[in-house]
Amino acid sequence: MITEDTRRLVDEGIMLPLMEEFYTIQGEGFHKGTAAYFIRIGGCDVGCHWCDVKESWDAGLHPPTHIGKIIENATAYSDTVVVTGGEPLTWDMTQLTQGLKNKGSKIHIETSGAYKLSGQWDWICLSPKKKKLPTDEIYPLANELKMIIFNKHDFKFAEEQAAKVSEDCILYLQPEWSKRDKMMPLIVDYVMKNPKWKVSLQTHKYLNIP
């Protein structure tokens, strides 16, 4: 059972429900191929039915971990740190990112943007979901927009979201993994007709790495 003191520390972002942490190669988007330390934070109520880490949804399954330990582990491996989830912005990221910044880390976040942006970020990968749309504040700050394509209707949603980000934001269409064989030809055709978009692949899955 989580004590009141622990709950308070979680609310303040001094402890976070850590699902897993690992050093690997970024497989998606602009920084694909880059070595990075991933911090996966538990807790998400966005509820994508095709999510490939549903075990991250219930924050109660993942032990509250002091950010000092998380920062120590991350900076021992890499100067590039990716915070993902779950939905990391469920929690206050201020203390974690400040600690990483103090160690000289470049900090990236992968988020649906469904919650208020907290923390200091060098790179924001925004991946909006239909069930819980991003807050207005995050759109102009996104460095890349990663739209997951599960069916044909997702192209329309992708365009709606692309209209909200800055003109410098890099636009990606990425097939949902289980539908990649069906959707990839459609994505390729779409990008060729609409070259403002780029194709993103989950290359880490092809490489069979985390």
UniProtKB/TrEMBL annotation:
Cofactor binding note: Binds 1 [4Fe-4S] cluster. The cluster is coordinated with 3 cysteines and an exchangeable S-adenosyl-L-methionine. Binds 1 S-adenosyl-L-methionine per subunit.
Domain Radical SAM core: 31-210
PANTHER family: 7-CARBOXY-7-DEAZAGUANINE SYNTHASE
Sequence positions that bind [4Fe-4S] cluster: 44, 48, 51
Binding residue positions for substrate: 25-27, 40, 84, 210
Keyword terms, alphabetized: 4Fe-4S, Iron, Iron-sulfur, Lyase, Magnesium, Metal-binding, Queuosine biosynthesis, S-adenosyl-L-methionine
Protein name: 7-carboxy-7-deazaguanine synthase
Binding site for S-adenosyl-L-methionine: 50-52, 86, 127-129
Keyword Transferase: no
Cofactor: [4Fe-4S] cluster; S-adenosyl-L-methionine; Mg(2+)
Keyword Magnesium in record: yes
Family membership noted in the UniProt record: Belongs to the radical SAM superfamily. 7-carboxy-7-deazaguanine synthase family.
Biological process terms in GO annotation: tRNA queuosine(34) biosynthetic process
Biological role stated in the UniProt entry: Catalyzes the complex heterocyclic radical-mediated conversion of 6-carboxy-5,6,7,8-tetrahydropterin (CPH4) to 7-carboxy-7-deazaguanine (CDG), a step common to the biosynthetic pathways of all 7-deazapurine-containing compounds.
Record EC number: 4.3.99.3
Pathway info: Purine metabolism; 7-cyano-7-deazaguanine biosynthesis
Gene3D superfamilies to which the protein is assigned, alphabetical: Aldolase class I (3.20.20.70)
